[in-house]
Write a structure and sequence with these properties.
It is a single chain. The longest helix has 23 residues, at about 90-110. With about 150 residues, this protein is an alpha/beta fold. It is built from 5 helices and 7 strands; from the N terminus they run αααβββαββαββ. It starts with a helix and ends in a 6-residue tail after the last strand. This is LUD domain-containing protein. InterPro entries: LUD_dom.
């Protein structure tokens, strides 16, 4: 729908991701991911899998995605395609490890010119945080989105 192109362009919003990626020193970039990348007002993301009971799972290499979803961001907007719906948490983990991480690795080789990626952090969200109800909003889209 062009939303990412919109965010990357001139908008009234601060595109923190662009700020982080503009930093070429990897140590400084990691610090920006930790400090400004996970504590934004709005964190737009997806999940590797959503179970039939509503649990959600995803993983990442650095922890920046897990940290933002778990606690850092004030609001989390999750957009998930119907291709990511699985039966249970075991299938969610299997889909993450066997499908999503290899696909993300292939994408990273092309997009970021790195040897690939792996998963060092895995998050399974079983229910809403009772202290921040409504913080995570999920939009299920009835079509295949992402990997």
């Amino acid at each position: 729908i062009g939303f990412i192109d919109y965010l990357i362009g001139e908008t009234p919003y601060n595109n923190v991701r662009s700020t982080i990626l503009a930093e070429k020193d990897l140590a400084k970039q990691a610090e920006l991911r930790r400090t400004i990348g996970t504590t934004v007002d709005y964190f737009l993301t997806s999940m590797a899998a959503v179970t039939e009971t509503g649990a959600m799972a995803h993983g990442d290499l650095t922890g920046s995605k897990v940290g933002g979803v778990a606690f850092g961001a004030k609001n989390v907007i999750v957009v998930v395609g119907s291709n990511k719906i699985v039966k249970d948490v075991d299938e969610a983990y299997k889909r993450t490890v066997e499908w999503c991480i290899p696909a993300a690795s292939a994408f990273s080789r092309v997009a970021f010119k790195v040897p690939g990626t792996s998963m060092s952090h895995y998050e399974l969200l079983l229910q809403a945080n009772p202290f921040t109800p409504g913080r995570i909003q999920v939009l299920l889209v009835n079509e295949a989105l992402g990997f």
